[in-house]
Amino acid sequence: MKAMTYYGANDIRFEERDKPALxxxxxxxxxxxxxxxxGTDLGIWKGKNPEIEQTQIERSxxxxxxxxGHEGIGVIEDVGSAVKNFSKGDKVILSCxxxxxxxxNCQKQxxxxxxxxxxxxxxxxxxxxxxxxxxxxxxxxxxxxxxPELDEDVAVMLSDALPTAHEIGVQxxxxxxxxxxxxxxxxxxxxxxxLTAQLYSPSRIxxxxxxxxxxxLARDLGATDTxxxxxEDAASKILELTEGRGVDCAIEAVGAEATWNxxxxxxxxxxxxxxxxxxxxxxxxxxxxxxxxxLTITTGLVNANTTAMLLKTCCAGKFPMEKLVTHHFAFSxxxxxxxxxxxxxxEKAMKVVIDF
Length: 356
Hints:
This protein is α/β, with parallel strands linked by helices. The chain has helices spanning 39-45, 51-60, 104-107, 139-142, 152-157, 161-171, 188-197, 212-220, 234-241, 257-266, 287-290, 307-315, 334-342, 344-347; strands spanning 2-8, 11-16, 28-36, 66-67, 72-79, 91-94, 97-98, 119-120, 133-136, 143-145, 180-184, 204-209, 225-228, 247-252, 267-275, 296-298, 325-330, 351-355. Strands 3, 5, 6, 9, 10, 17 and 18 form a seven-stranded mixed sheet that branches. Strands 13-12-11-14-15-16 form a six-stranded parallel sheet, sandwiched between helices. The radius of gyration is 20 Å and the shape is globular. The model has no long low-confidence stretch (mean pLDDT 97).
């Protein structure tokens, strides 16, 4: 089968790989129908996650590549003998987080840190979804039946982008009715924060980005204010918009020091700073200025414990997530899709969907 495989920093290859087989009785084999590219995949490509190689070498003595991807929908082709909730032929959404459901952390709904080999593993610790076939572990706890009425492009974003935005951005940010919110970064996850924040009726949502096309979309999706941080000082503008107070919640949705620094400057006393972005390098933490402000600062990896709720909300048409999809590619065009997504500003790309 064809797959996009990571071999190290700046080295990914669209190549032939062996079709996976079931390993555990709780596995299923899925034939992929749609997948996508995440900013995390770009980060892996750039070398942000050397633990991928290190872990595989520790386990097997060598590194033979890792198939990328942790999002998508597909059709079940084979079912392990212990799987109870799914059957061959079911069309399913693959969650980016796998969970055993029985370990100490899963009992706390801390599925991101499943102690029995789950958590975020697709395209990271095991082969992922940018391939014709995928082995899905812990299938009963890690798949969702795809409702026939749900737009399949939207379904792809229920794998990761929407639950990550909701749980690590909006819920961790403790957004409440009447709050002011600043979202720094209007990529797919930042836009997911914008949409899911509106479930909690904030009075103002400020979006910050360098891309005017994305900022225009943000206004269409409900942002009350937008700031191009390449044209003006974003922190100063946010303070101006909030009468010098700052916001109740600042969400960092990029994973860069510049965006982190904006957040540190604009959270008012008693507020929340929710980091969603994946950081590959240390950042300066201005604790000398923040210690006195009674802030709550959160980090996190999505647990996907709100995916079922978000799935129902999407079926009800509450989130126009389809507006985030700017490009479609055939699976054979996956290398081209990577080039477009990597150059998203020039290509006016938001979310690219790969059709098999």
